[in-house]
Amino acid sequence: MLRRASRAVLRAVAPTDAAAWLAGLLCYAYGGDASRLDGLENANPKRYCGYVFQEGDICWNCRTCEADATCVQCDACFQASDHEGHEVFFHKASPNGCCDCGDEEAWALAGCCPLHRRNENETLRDPVSALDAAFAAAARAVLEAARDVLVDCVTDAVLCYEMSMPPPQGGRSRSNSVSSVGSNGEGGDAGEVDPRLATNPHMLAENDGRVHVFIHNDDWHTYDDITTLLRNCFLRGQLAQQLTQRVDAEGQAEVHYNGDHPRLPPVRTLAYARYCLRQIYSAGVIASVATDAQARTALTARVLTEAMMDLAGRNDGLMRMIAEVLAAPNATPAAGVRKAFKSGRLGLEEKVTGCGEPRLAAVEHIVRFREPYLDMFWAHEEGLEIPSTALVLLWVSDPLLPKSVRTALHALVMRLLADTAYFRLKCAEALFAAYPLLADHYAHGVGVYGDSAFDITVQIFTTPSVVEHLCRPGAEQGGTLMHVLLGSLRRAFQVARRQAPLTVALAGVPPEGNWLEHSLFLHSRYHNCGLSDLGHCFRAPGVSAFLLQDGNALGELMRVLAHLHLMDRFKRQVGSHVEYENMHWVSAFNASLAIGDFFISFFKGLLDAAPGGDAPNAEWARLLKQTVAALHRADTQEALAPPQRWGGGDPPRPMPGRAELADSQADYRKFNVLRGENSIHIPFHRLVGLATSAMGGADAARGLSVADVVASANLGLSDVALLCDLPLRNLALSSLTAAHVFRRNGLQFEHMMASYGRPPYCRLLRDPDVRCVQLAFLGLAPHARGFEFGVGLILDKFLVSRFLLEPAASAKELEVGLTEAAHGRGFLGQMGESCLDTIITVATELPAGLEAAVRREVVHALVEQDLPYSGLFKATQVLDEVPEALFAEVVGDVCERTGGERSVFCLKPEFWASYDPSFWHLPRNRHETAMQRVESHYARRKPKAKGKGKSKKAPPRPLAPPMPTCRSGFDAIRNGVLFNDVTFAAVRGALVRALTPRGAGAAA
Question: What predicted TM-score, i.e. pTM, was given to this entire model?
Fold first, then answer.
């Protein structure tokens, strides 16, 4: 009875009075005295801060106490805590974060403030049990009623976005297709759709008030787009600009003109709404239609949500009760109780199962805001069905809620997350059920970066116990968390490929690359379609291993990478210069960098969880084997050159297409990068390369052996050739671009290739390519003449096989055979040099321990120039995360501080001999500067001879230092690459050409 009465009251009162009425009804057991709420006692001490940061708040990180970099303390908790001797720093917070003080999964107990630090042997009581029994019973009934009203408000808000409406003059529309919306604003009905879909009740002639048309913010349209749209709705220029600014600031704005217009129906009428919607739908802008009553409903939803948040902050018993009510199954839809949820925009319809429990099921078609408007819904094909709870409904409806309601709901969730014992897991389960739908709408352009549900998912997916629970096999819907997140990301990329903008194909712009113009790539929206949350999950111990153990999730990862494999293809421009320099490369570049960061997070989590023994090697071998298998599938579909067979004759001189190993045959691709299509985006190889870096840099105590991993993966020679192929092409392309052979492809192309090979981007692009080649060479080590084949591949990809191995051949004739264009020739000499430099890099820059790598970076940075402490630390950013203590130790060992006003660090004299002229993280121009400084250093230190006018010669010194140390197992690469017949022949050929006089026919 109380629940029914409370529903009626909360629906009837003015929205501004709903909070007061809710408080009074909660105290029904106390005669409606709301002041009794202030006297409620907590059952337990508050052991979790949970303060929600506002814009500009000070928050603190502590490297000693935090579980990961996302964990912070508010300023009040930090000042009350003991962080003596800890590495701490502060920054200004952005909204939606919260203080982790007291959360033992996020912050060390010793670093918590006294208020939130749990005492030893402290036991917690059920917070609801501490409340008076009569009060608790009445309060639960009232909160359930408030939940029903809130769910009704959400249902009504979602219905405001439905496209379907009765045709003008009450007749049936002649077309039943959504695409009948007039694209030119003339004629047609504004969105008559399949009658099976939900209709918009606010577009009925007998609605409950004036009709308001709202347009909503998105990341797709510019200011000019929205202003032009509003002008088409006959809004004057100044008003159109004001409403555009309101859309950006407030998330929505009503479309209306001032005064009367002789050619238009009056504002806020059905006729004007239909006119505006024709313009809005044709522009692909998100729109909703509401009446005065619905505006009051939205206000009620916001007030009730804020009231619940206030109640949750007053007492832990009320917080738990609100959490339980929101997580419980919704009441069965019935008259006077609540409406059934149905949305064509969200593709969901509420159904009641045989046991009377409501469930949300996907419908056959979903209505999109952009073409194709009526779309077959993948969720229906996959049989998506999720629980119908208030939490689930709030998650799935989040993109379509008014900004004020959405902000209030996010704040409520953040407040309730303080209930770490109950709500955090329930909230995560609801998000897990709704995540594929949320990501799908975001991929289709619904939702704004910085104002969506994805802004608070970090609070859930960085909790180890929650992530581990969702990663266990047997999850209710959609597999494990890894499978759900990767599946959401894969579908997002499918959306971009399917809805590629119809750009006119121009010279040098392959039409298949148009999908990189999709907003998913232009605005990097794929981060919020699973990629960022996967990175958050990998911070939890052991979660990376779940991905390897889940075959379905690993398969989804390979399908995700297949979408990005060889994207943004290009060919060498011949004839005239490129007429239009597109910016596809920026979108592709950003995607590759994002995937690279994802790989690093994954491998870091895998290493942190790896026990000793044989198990780690088996896991990494399984990953390598799966990746190579997926690469073979992608290579079959995307082959850029026919395969060649290595199986008869001597080792490849100069890679004629057939050569012999004593025990195997290998298929490889003979490819001329100057004639064919190329792409520097090879995620499968980057996965292998970054895995090699992670394994090579791991401590020996982890029990990892790269050689054992390669042996366990049982790679064949064709696998090895495939792993070498595309990375070597990329390295050759980088060298050819430096030789200006691709000059006619435009300045943007040169920017792309320069970024590929230079810090800091080379960490995720060029360096993994080299690592992939090095791992492939480990697969060649067991074969008697395997390294000769590997070096032959390098010569072949760099187009210098005959140039170096047949020094008597004419360089000009060789170039004519390699490229059909006369311009850009004369490159073979520089390519020969680059090829030999690549061989040196493969043999020299092998994986080593982190300390050795940091030392090498610091030394070469200081050889080039003296630097301040911040400049030195920036030089190490090309590596993985470097602990501050390790960096300070290296700096103290190899550097000394100069005096003067501008104190900087310089290299100690004994370390100048460590300079390596082929160090891969210094470009050629910086090496030239470094070499000049080296010569100046030794010139200053040259001993003076006795006697006037005499000088003493400096002792001879080697041009290059001894090779740096490397991890055990990689020594075989170093010896095999440098000491084989093909390498010796290539070096001999280079010397012959260097010493041959120009004009003798064999000059470079």
Answer: 0.90
- Burial 896-935, CB ≥16 within 10 A → b, else e: eeeeeeeebbebeeebbebbbebbbbbeeebbeebeebbe
On the 0-12 / 13-18 / 19+ scale of CB atoms within 10 A, 454 is buried
Q: Which of 827, 557, 839 is nearest to 724 (CA)?
A: 839
Residue 285 β-bridge partners: none
- Asked, for residue 470, whether it belongs to a domain, the answer is yes
- CATH number for the domain spanning 259: value is 3.30.1390.10
Q: Is the pLDDT score of 89 beyond 60?
A: yes
What are the backbone angles phi and psi of residue 105, rounded to the nearest 5°? -85, -10
Could you tell me if residue 52 is inside a domain?
Answer: no
Cβ partners under 8 Å of residue 1001, min gap 6? 810
Given this model, what pLDDT does residue 662 score?
43
Residue 577 pLDDT: 84
The CA-atom distances, in angstroms, between 489 and each of 363, 374, 782, 958 are: 21, 22, 39, 52
Listed in sequence order, the residues at least 6 apart from 121 whose beta carbon sits closer than 8 Å to its beta carbon are none
Per residue in 727-758, is it b (16+ CB within 10 Å) or e — as a string? bbbbbbbbbbbbbebbbbbbeebeebbebbbb
Cα→Cα distances 793→60, 325, 668, 810, 902, Å? 52, 65, 9, 22, 50
DSSP bridge pairs for 58? 92
CATH number, residue 880: 1.10.10.2670
Residue 52 pLDDT > 60: yes
Q: Which residues pair with 351 in a beta bridge?
A: 359
Q: Which two tokens stand for residue 447?
A: 């939702």
Burial classification of residue 995, based on how many CB atoms lie within 10 Å of its CB (0-12 exposed, 13-18 middle, 19 or more buried):
exposed
What is the per-residue pLDDT across 196-235, written as a single tens digit (0 to 9) for each?
555 676 666 666 668 899 999 999 899 999 999 999 888 8
Structural domain ending residue among the three candidates 280, 296, 312: 296
DSSP states of 879-942 as a string?
SS---HHHHHHHHHHHEEE--SSS--EEE-GGGGGG--TT-TTS-HHHHHHHHHHHHHHHHHTS
The residue with tokens 């912050």 is: 107
- Half-sphere exposure of residue 630, counting CA atoms within 13 Å on the CB side? 24
Residue ending a domain, choose from 885, 918, 940: 940
DSSP SS3 for 419 = coil
Give the whole-angstrom CA distance, residue 318 versus residue 897.
Answer: 60
Flag whether 237 is in a domain: yes
Q: Is residue 752 part of a domain?
A: no
Domains in the chain: how many in total?
3
Q: What is the pairing mode between strands 348-352 and 374-376? A: unpaired
Q: What is the pLDDT of residues 787-844, one digit of tens each?
A: 999 999 999 999 999 999 999 999 989 988 888 776 667 899 999 999 999 999 999 9
User: Could you tell me which of 777, 739, 807 has the C-alpha nearest to residue 987?
Assistant: 807
Tokens of 876: 């190490």
Residue 444: per-residue pLDDT: 93
DSSP states of 698-713: S-GGG---HHHHHHHH
Query: So what's the pLDDT on residue 953?
Result: 65
> Per residue in 655-667, pLDDT tens?
433 344 444 566 7
The range of the structural domain enclosing residue 191 comes to: 159-296
